[in-house]
Amino acid sequence: MQTVNFAKRAALALLLTMPAWAQAQAPAWPSKPIKWIIPYTPGGITDNATRMVVQKVQEQTGWTIVIENKPGANSILGADLAARSAPDGHTFVTVIGAHAANATLYAGRLPYDVVKSFAPVSLVGIAPLVMTVTNSLPVKDVKELIAYSKANPGKVAFGSSGVGAAAHLTQELLKQVSGADMVHVPYKGTAPALADLMGGNLQVLTDTASAMMPHVRSGKIKPLAVFSNKRVPGAAEVPTIAEAGGPAIEGSTWVLFLAPSATPKDIVNRMSAETAKAINSPELRAKFEALGIESVGSSPEQAGKFLDEEIVKWAKVINAAGVKAE
């Protein structure tokens, strides 16, 4: 009995001499609803993909996740809100290719660091871009488009949803590699550019399969190629750019999850694991395929490496083309 009492007294003494931080248990996470920032308007591929994944994560975990759309300034507004949020695991943000391009387009002017202000969580998916042309353009593949543009300098205009968008930079890459002579016409979103393409006022438009293929299949525009080294779900009938006689280059928009820098590693890893589990469920894989998105679900380390590579890739294109932010 004396031995037991001694052990109790020793344990109590040890507890009393421990610092307060050691006595306190780590707070449960999440301790409140998680805020998920999407720096774009509702309804686009970024918003749809995020909502599908987040809904599945909620079903898996029972967590409450509240999505907030914060569009503006080429995604800078929403990314800045996330970067300035407390790194306690209760704020996450979705970014796309514009996040990588902004590192160069707004060099020295961003209120955050594209890499250092965030903790990578997961690369959700990649959506290779589909290049289409107006029906009246007398070309049937990429090889003919390049030749036609050279024979008609300054007369072939390609549109995009805005300066620095993935579609814009991918077309600039095509110009640099092939010598094609095409003029960029930026629009405020894909919808007005698509309307001009279908109306014959624009010759070329590149965007996601989900945006372009319904109009391709209705016969309103012609598909030339997908900027990928393999055919993609959601546009399986469209050849790769190499198959269509063009250079073997790749261009895509993508969906990547980030958290504020200094978010605890165990929380980042948990969210990454739940994201991968959701993405690789048969239900979500099928939905992603319908949107022309290749499912990924990477580790935080893989997501960080991917982002670094995209920043370098598009910096070269932006600088070579002399692209300036609007």
Describe the structure.
The structure is a single chain. With 326 residues, this protein is of the alpha/beta class. The chain has two domains: 34-126 and 253-321, D-Maltodextrin-Binding Protein, domain 2, CATH 3.40.190.150; 128-226, Periplasmic binding protein-like II (D-Maltodextrin-Binding Protein, domain 2). Helices cover 43% and strands 19% of the residues. The protein is built from twelve helices and ten strands. Strands 1, 2, 3, 4, 5, 6, 7, 8, 9 and 10 form a ten-stranded mixed sheet that branches. Helix 7 links the parallel strand 5 (157-160) and strand 6 (183-186). The radius of gyration is 24 Å and the shape is globular.
List the helices and strands and how they pair.
Blueprint: H1 2-17, H2 20-23, E1 34-38, H3 45-61, E2 65-69, H4 76-83, E3 91-95, H5 97-105, E4 118-134, H6 142-151, E5 157-160, H7 166-178, E6 183-186, H8 190-198, E7 204-208, H9 209-217, E8 221-226, E9 252-260, H10 265-279, H11 282-290, E10 294-295, H12 300-321
Parallel strand pairs: 1-2, 1-3, 5-6, 5-7
Antiparallel strand pairs: 3-9, 4-7, 4-8, 4-9, 4-10
Write a concise synopsis of the structure shown.
The chain is an alpha/beta fold. It is built from twelve helices and ten strands.
- Helical amount: 40-55%
State the secondary-structure class: alpha/beta
CATH-derived architecture of the largest domain? 3-Layer(aba) Sandwich
Number of extended strands: 10
Q: DSSP helix count?
A: 12
Instruction: Please state the average pLDDT score.
Output: 92
The CATH class of the largest domain is identified as: Alpha Beta
CATH topology of the largest domain: D-Maltodextrin-Binding Protein, domain 2
Biggest sheet record: 10 strands, mixed
Assign the CATH superfamily of the largest domain.
Answer: Bordetella uptake gene, domain 1
Rg, alpha carbons: 24 Å
The total tally of domains equals 2
Order of helices and strands: HHEHEHEHEHEHEHEHEEHHEH
Determine the strand fraction and express it as a percent band: 15-25%
Shape: globular
N→C terminal distance: 80 Å
Low-confidence stretches: 1-24
